[in-house]
From TrEMBL:
Keywords: Disulfide bond, Fibrinolytic toxin, Hemostasis impairing toxin, Hydrolase, Protease, Serine protease, Toxin. It comes from the Eukaryota. This is Peptidase S1 domain-containing protein. GO terms for molecular function: serine-type endopeptidase activity; toxin activity. It is found in: Secreted, Extracellular space. The lineage of its organism: Eukaryota, Metazoa, Ecdysozoa, Arthropoda, Hexapoda.
Amino acid sequence: MAVIKIRNYSGYPSKSAQLPYDVNNVLSPRIVGGEDAPERYAKHMVALVLIGYVKMLSCGGSIIGKRHVLTAAHCIDPYVIWGELSPQLKGVVGSNYWNSTNYIEFTDYIIHPEYGWTSFTNDIGLLITADKIVYSKFVGPIALNYDFIDGAVRSFVTGWGRLEANGEVPHRLQLLYLNTMSHIQCVWAFISVGFPSTVDPELEICTLHSKGHGMCFGDSGSALVDAASRKLIGIVSWGYPCAVGFPDVFVRISAFEKFLRDALGKYVEH
């Protein structure tokens, strides 16, 4: 069991508490209840795959520059060995099918310096490609929205995560529309049923569709997109899997503007 500090929001008392499940199973990287995404609906999407004896889906990511793929830090960290990124981690672009062979390779990475691997705080990072990504009618970047996002914002997520907790990984990209929650709604959704809430409203965004609709294993790192502006506002980070009626929690892009601008500046596009 992992002990996670419950943060003090809106007068709620801070205390330490044990989560009711093993942290590796509960606060998991993790679309349930979605639909097949139309072709070219999410040209920014990257399937992060591990190429070994077998090919495995690891996470999702988003193209935000010619050499930059944005994802969750916990999607990068396991593949860093003695400071070097494993060459077995590759990206698939330009296809709604994660088992396609349209690979891009990565040569470097940037993880937020204050990333907390046990609590998923500051769960943001970038993968740097070996070569410039070639944009086409199937491949392209997504713009970042640095505005603070409150509740009731219509948005969508695309990903290749499992269709249920112990279910299959879909071959085709899935799409789910949902609304963001206010931080009060999110905190109460956890606390009202006796679960600790570690959500930080300054750093994270919550969404909730309904029971049977939400994120699952493999969706981590995928983008939460504002449906109106089609800009990226969040990154799938953690939640109580899978789609059991609790909020899904995303990294809040607006909280990391300086980190992102600094990181992007280290690999200037020509």
